[in-house]
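TA notes, week 10

Several of you asked for a full example with nothing omitted. So below is the full record: structure tokens for the whole chain, then the designed sequence directly under it. When grading your own attempts, check the secondary structure regions first.
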């Protein structure tokens, strides 16, 4: 395991309780449209699904409630996997404590749906992770992910002004301002996510950058980091739906 992954594993083991059940499906992220509205996943009944960065298992629970036929998940953090095992103890679910950069024994060409809710931006190897996702999917299977929009943490709010605190062009490891424990997140541009998917052979079907700022959304999601004011100007979340096509 590379050094960033070891640092992040320790960090997530410590913060896991704070993130228990935070914004799982049908949520895609704070102040973002939900699966109830977007209908990106289609009918889940009878589908084989895999969760990348499954956290406390609440999105897998959503899959169970919607009658997926097989549920698989992986997460780097021991604490998160323990929480997911406990949450899903009555269900037939296969969980791996493993980084998304590696295949810990997940079958290839097997899944109808691979998804990742607010976890992909942690990957230390985007290229390898998306190769893995591609290999897990059946032909025609879908990959849906959500992550903090790459503009959101590069722009700071100071009073009524929004200011770029880092160039949009810079990519690679960074310290996330809102993160209190030592952790190394990765900054990618929107085009890097999309071009890497395209390079792997994915067909991109949908890219969503909308926000939802109804009273209910704001009451449910607003906090110091995701605020109504800032979200009025820029997206909090990017959501992408891609389909496994023929490798070029
Ligand atoms: C915000 S949480 C995900 C929440 C979860 N997807 C849900 O729907 O409830 C992000 C997760 O990514 C995991 N993670 C971070 N780096 C990872 C990596 N390299 N491989 C796998 N999981 C990772 C963390 O342990 C954490 O559980």
């Amino acid at each position: 395991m590379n050094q960033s992954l070891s640092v992040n594993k320790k960090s997530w083991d410590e913060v896991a309780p704070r993130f228990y059940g935070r914004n799982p499906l049908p949520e895609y992220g704070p102040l973002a449209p939900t699966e109830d509205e977007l209908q990106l996943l289609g009918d889940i009944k009878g589908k084989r699904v895999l969760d990348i960065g499954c956290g406390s298992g609440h999105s897998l629970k959503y899959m169970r409630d919607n009658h997926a036929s097989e549920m698989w998940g992986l997460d780097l953090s021991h604490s998160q996997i323990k929480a997911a095992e406990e949450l899903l103890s009555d269900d037939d679910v296969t969980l791996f404590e493993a980084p998304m950069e590696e295949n810990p024994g997940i079958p290839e060409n097997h899944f109808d749906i691979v998804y990742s809710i607010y976890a992909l931006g942690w990957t230390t190897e985007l290229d390898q992770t998306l190769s893995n996702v591609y290999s897990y999917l059946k032909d025609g299977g879908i990959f849906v992910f959500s992550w903090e929009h790459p503009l959101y943490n590069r722009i700071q709010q100071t009073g009524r002004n929004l200011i770029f605190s880092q160039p949009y062009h810079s990519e690679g490891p960074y310290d996330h301002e809102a993160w209190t424990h030592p952790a190394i997140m990765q900054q990618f541009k929107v085009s890097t996510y999309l071009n890497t998917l395209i390079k792997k052979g994915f067909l991109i079907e949908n890219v969503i950058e909308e926000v939802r700022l109804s009273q209910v959304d704001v009451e449910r999601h607003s906090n110091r980091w995701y605020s109504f004011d800032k979200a009025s100007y820029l997206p909090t979340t990017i959501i992408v739906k891609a389909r496994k096509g023929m490798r070029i």
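The chain has one domain: 3-244. Use that as a sanity check on your answer.
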